[in-house]
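ok so heres the complex, two chains, lmk if somethin looks off
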Amino acid sequence: MKRILLVLSTVLSAQQAIDAPPLAHVLNSDGLLMPIHGIAGNFVPGRAGMALLAYSNDGDIEWRLEAGRLSATREEQTAVYVTTATTAIFRGDTAYLPETKDYIKFDGQMFHHSSEKSNLQLAGRKVFWKDGRLQIFQADGAMEEIACPLEPERMTAAAANWAHLVIEGRAHLLRLTPGRVELFVLPERRGE
Amino acid sequence: MRLLLAFAAALPLAAQLEVQSLQGSTPVALGPSANLGTVAAGDSTDFRFQAMNTGAAPLAINSITVGGTGYSLPAAFAPVILAPGESYPFSVRFSPKGEGSYSASLAVNSFTSLLRATVVLGPSLYLTNGGQATELTAGSMQVNLVTGQALPLAFSIGNPHARAITITDLSISGPGFAMASSPALPLMLGPGERAAIPVTVTASAEGEALGTLLVGARRFDILATAIRPKLAPPAIVPSDSAPRNGQQLKLRLTLPQPALGAGTGMLRATFMGASEDPAIVFPNGTREIKFDVAAGGRDATFGGAAETVIQTGTTAGTLRLEAITETGVTTETFRFERGLIVVDEAVARRSGSTLEIDITGFDNTRAAGSLNFRFFDRSGAPIGGVISATPGELFKNHFDQSVMGGVFRLRASFPVTGDATMVGSVLVEIANPVGRTDLQRLLFP
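and the predicted structre for the whole thing:
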């Protein structure tokens, strides 16, 4: 215990950073990648960026499908896969391309074709809709529920603890933090 | 030629009286006799006429009289002088008590005409409203309806007489008037019998419309006045009676009474705080959102949804909500007092020999100042004392540049000399001018 020396007081101010980075990223209804700033329940959509066909970011892997290519990035390592796919479903380290029925697995450096079906992970959780409720199975197996009268049309990972849901055509953000599962409306970007 | 001109100048200008019936679409000159048609016994009918000066000189109308059982002049007559081309309208009221043939002499100055009418037994007319049938004894009625509404009028006819009557004519005319269903004709009604003749009135625009219901010899006018109902401002019902910063506040709008007709309005938010807060918006990303109320409904809808939300932002101030319709405004005002720092997410992690603490939250005073950290080993024993920092300048710089209200993310790194894995948890306190917020103990994984 005595060996622990916390060198804090002299360097603390140099080691601090205060900012307001994006909370999550989502594809808006026009297919444009959009950062979401703010905190839970008080979101401020940022300026829309590049057009993508599909997107997912679970805090571990960022998937992007754009015309002619699929890319995945983990810890600043990006791999690119040439494809004509126009749709993709991202679950954890696997991308499913429905048009070719391909499962593409990303190991952090490169892609591998996989015969394994996705286990439906969404930002590390399994999320199901049943009888007007969303059931969220956390990584430790704990199940949490939240009311959601209508079945989401789309669910994609938006950050480590956030999923982007489209319900009845309206964008929502689902907080997945264990013990703090909440469903919020995601406002449109002002002026768009 | 001079002789002829002098003769013509000596002729008096002629005045000429013509009495005309106004029952049809155009005036018709009255002859020595006139048939007024068939009238139902018990009805009172006004027949319209006019005395017209068709000559080139002024004409004095000195008297108008009518003589005959059941006939009368509804308005007193006073002598009048008509200029050439001018006319004087008047009515003759016919109120027969029983069936048969009736006649009367109508006299205008020296002009006379024999008026004749046939009186038959007619049906009684009833209107049922709220289960109560009321006999309509007048010749007309007025109804009010709202635009877009189909107003049902539950008319029925009955035979109040001691013997059967036969109805051969049954019709409704006028813009927007229709008979929902009608009995087969001829319709024989025995004494005391009734038959339903439901009528509907519809109006797509504001204004008046005249409908005429003809039942045998009876004529009944219905003046329908259509109005466009104006929506009263609804009450604003928040899901939380004491809302605070950092919420998505659900809102419903409710009218005290069901709306007479469909209407729309605007829900508007206004925020007054020390700084602007872009998070304070409705789902459409603005501070105004349209609402609709269906006819007969009390609850507003927002694009089909029964409620909307407004983000309450992360800045102290006053949020004013106004539900605006064309007839007024209702207001709800919420005050967000300056409060303690609210932490939304806090994570402690270890990265090699560095301990990292990541805190996301908001300070609605935008004046956060001091931080205290107290580290513990895996057994819960404190390691060293409280480590304090006053990054007030960092916060100030952040809030000066930020357009995100009171939102901040603080990341603090603590290089450790020694075995960083022995550090098990940390307690964090963060303060602003209002007071100190104690975070729950953060565990290092």
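quick notes: Chain A touches chain B through 40 residues (CB under 8 Å). thats all i got rn
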